[in-house]
Amino acid sequence: MSKYVLLYYLQPDGGPATPEEWQTEQAAWQRYAKDLTESGVLVANEGLAGTDSATSVRTRDGQTQITDGPFAETKEYLAGIFVIEVPDLDAALEWAARMPGSRYGTVEVRPTWGQG
Q1: pTM (two decimals)
Q2: Which element (helix H / strand E) includes 58?
Q3: CA 61 to CA 32: how far, in whole Å?
Q4: Looking at the domain assignment, is residue 116 inside a domain?
Q5: What is the sign, positive or negative, of the torsion defined by CA atoms of 101, 105, 98, 112?
Q6: CATH number at residue 97
Q7: Which of 4, 38, 83, 92 has the fewest CB atoms inside 10 Å of its own CB, making it the most exposed?
Q8: Residue 86: helix, strand or coil by DSSP?
C-alpha cells in the first residue's frame, strides 16, 4: 500500500452559487469523506482556512522574513487535503476523480516521500 496526498484547489469565485447548491455540495463532500472512511483508505483529512489568514515565513541569509498571505498569487487556492493509503497511483487517481471539488476545481495527486 502507498500513501498519496490529494490536494484540492478551488477558485475564489468557483463552486455553487446559491444556498441550495451549497447544501447539495456539502452533502456530496460528506458522502465522499464517508466513502473514504468506510473503504478504509482515509489516513487524514483537513480543510484549510482562506489565504487571507495565511502567513508566509522565509529565511534568507540567516534573516527570517514573515509576511501576510501566501507566497505566490494564484487563481486557485489550496483549500484542503486528504491523505489516503491505496494500492497504487491508479486507485489514488480514481479517488481524486470522485472528489466533489474536482468538478469545479483541481485535485493534485502526490505520493508521499518513499512511495509510488
Answers
A1: 0.84
A2: strand 55-60
A3: 45
A4: no
A5: negative
A6: 3.30.70.1060
A7: 38
A8: strand
